[in-house]
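Notes for week 9. Today we move from apo structures to complexes. The key idea is that a small molecule is not decoration. When we ask for a structure prediction with copper (II) ion present, the ligand SMILES becomes part of the input, just like the chain. The input block below holds both the sequence and the ligand string. Read it once before you look at the output, and try to guess where the molecule might sit.
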Amino acid sequence: MVLIRAVPVGLVGVLLFAFRAHAHGIADGLAVYPKGGSGGTYYKGYNPSMQFQSPPPDVVGWSTPDDLQNTFVAPSAFSSPDIICHLGATPAALAVPVTAGDDIGIHWDTWPDSHKGPIIDSLANCHGPCQDVDKTKLKFFEIGREAVINAASDLWAPNVLIQNGLTWFVHIPEGIEPGNYVLRHEIIALHAAGGVGGAQNYPFCFTLAVTSAGSDSPEGLGVQEYYDEAEVGIVWDLFGKSPADYVIPGPANNLYSGAVAASQRKPSITATGTGIVTLDVAALPEKTPTETEEPAAEETTAEEATTEEPVEVPSPTEAPEAEATTVDEPRETSSAAEGKEAMETPPAAPEETSKAVGGDIGAGLVVYSTIYVTTRVTVTEHNTTTLYATVTTARP
Ligand SMILES: [Cu+2]
């Protein structure tokens, strides 16, 4: 009898230890901030608890059902497929509709202040739908890499993430060609990285359907060729070395030349969306400057946006700011709205606008309609802190 009781007690002990030892976090969603705008549309990502729902929901985040304990990928797995998008990751069912030039605010469920290190963001073109892509064939190019924000105060990128409502911003470069992309977002925690094998990589992936007027297709690298467990930046004595000397690991030349650092700020979620199935790049029309017609409003996509409260939607003629833009033209043309100016001004919260996003994938044209309505949306989970940090780190 004693033996029988000892087994469950022992299991409980192991589980408790595991939760104490691995109380870090997961990237559980993201919001898209249109270029020049202030409010973001939030898309739910994956959480390992979803595997117990029947059926599991379709989300824009890659599935990581083996990550039930919020753990990490160890340097011993740097050449394993697990380093690509976390343990046993499989592609997301849905994609986030994004226009090149938008900012993405990636949200974590939690993150400890002690887990300092670099945050690295990269994209890989699926060259077709991402739902059935072979992740080991994906070639990622970096669009953001940050580590030490302020050496004197030992302020690292993940500390800024925590202070900004557990959100990290990345800019989707204007120059990339349209397509379905995997966004790989990774924090490398260095609190135990004084010796080989102690670093902790936390990569998470999302699928983006990117409309763009750009044509760049950076070559990129497979993540399994990316890190060396003994390289400086993976091995780093966080407590014995000066933050000013830190070097971000991975090939420095894998940063896309058109990458622009996003300004880190407090998130402002004004709407939620569910994602689209995929972007049919082959069906996109040729670029014609005279294109003015809108396609028929035929709904053939899962994309929809909802506000959190009933809203009063004015007719199009009453909404002077309403716009409809085809992929033939950039959604915003004001260069003054690009980057710093718009982004360094923290948006007031709660916002008093909501955004409805619609798409018509089947017709080959993607149309985003923005309708501004006067409703108040209360944001709590994603809008909890007051620090605004601007990251303008020079690229190596
Ligand atoms: Cu941890």
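The first strand starts at residue 27 and ends at 33.
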